[in-house]
Amino acid sequence: MEVLLAGGAGYIGSHTAVELLNAGHNVIIVDNYSNSSPEVVRRIQKISRRSIISYEADVRSKTDMMGIMEAHAIDSVIHFAGLKAVGESVKNPLEYYRNNIDTTLNLLECMKDCGVHNIVFSSSATVYGEENPYPYKETMPRGNCSNPYGWTKSMIEQIFEDAVKADPELSVVLLRYFNPIGAHPSGHMGEDPQGIPNNLMPYVAQVAVGRRDHLIVFGNDYPTPDGTCRRDYIHVVDLADGHVKAVEYAAQHKGAEVFNLGTGTPYSVLEIVEAFERSNSVPVKYEFGSRRDGDLAEFWANADKAREVLNWRASRSLDEMCRDTWNWQKSNPNGYNN
Ligand code: NAD
Ligand code: WQD
Questions:
Q1: CA quadruple 163, 168, 170, 173: dihedral sign
Q2: Which of 20, 26, 145, 149 is the most core-located residue (most Cβ within 10 A)?
Q3: pLDDT tens digits, one per residue of 113-156
Q4: Residue 24 zone, left/alpha/beta (φ > 0; ψ -120 to 50; rest)
Q5: How far is CA 67 from the centre of its chain?
Q6: Which residue, by CA, sits nearest to atom 12 of ligand 1?
Q7: Inter-residue contact 264 to 131 (CB < 8 Å)
Q8: Does residue 135 line the site of ligand 1, with CB under 6 A?
């Protein structure tokens, strides 16, 4: 299949590109590099030993996206293009709504005009909100999100559901990611946050490599076994494999389907720190701090549906997640700007 990856130079898109190429598909990347760089495309080619087509373009541009879709016989789109920093979305909500929703509407409109019927979307476990009991199951209703970023995902899911009701040709797969971490085992690709990392694993890795002095663990008084929050961390290559299955599924079906992509097993912040130290034999200095606004004590996936329907399950261990993160971080201490 010819798969167009909108936002394909980002953390999850780049790993998905490699797994799609490994599975025999062709990929076309469109990215404005607002949170990535053309170096990522070179790394994808290096790992896969395949040459790929990429465009520097804004997915919100009708002219650019029509030109790209008309130039290639696209079978499916995967929509990764979005802004994703939760705290920033609280400060700049309009930028988040504008970017995340406009990219979606423009992709759907261009797909309709160009006769492309299949799309896979990067949604998030955050759409379950605070109300649902964990483990989260796809049959649960979407809940109240604590920030504009989460609301963009919730609203976009609704947009897709309405679009499939109106267009019997359309096939949509909504993937709700839990907490993606890790890196490609080659050490050539990984997560490269700009500035101070918002997420736990990149922060841990930057402390280990000496870019940051210590981690602040946000709260140790939660009602969890060790008092720190628990999450369902999933290896980014497992997540990428899930996209290969999802895109193949979308091509065979019509309508909208939702899948959780998680492992089904939660780990606490302290368990992550300990696993990182143990598997890499490096110290990670930390201190306890106050709770971060909007954090839930714990949640994880019920991952049964993806296993039963997509024949996909996460197979990589927490130690592999930590080892691959460290391999990437120590070979690329400054990310892609080496
Ligand atoms: P990322 O920032 O690394 O990748 C997103 C890519 O989209 C970047 O390369 C960025 O330059 C590009 N982009 C953004 N707006 C664009 C636009 N208007 N036009 C063209 N390109 C644009 O993020 P990621 O971690 O790879 O996440 C991919 C998707 O998955 C995002 O939609 C994100 O919200 C979602 N998601 C991520 C996580 C996570 O923890 N990483 C969890 C759940 C969902
Ligand atoms: C994990 C745990 C923190 C940093 C976010 C988004 C979610 C999705 C994934 C995009 C929490 C703790 C973190 C630190 C810490 N993103 N922590 N010190 O918050 O589960 O999910 O990323 O779609 O929508 O909300 O992930 O990695 O930020 O935090 O103690 O410096 O680590 O409190 O318990 P989170 P995270």
A1: positive
A2: 20
A3: 999 999 999 999 999 999 999 999 999 999 999 999 999 999 99
A4: left
A5: 27
A6: 7
A7: no
A8: no
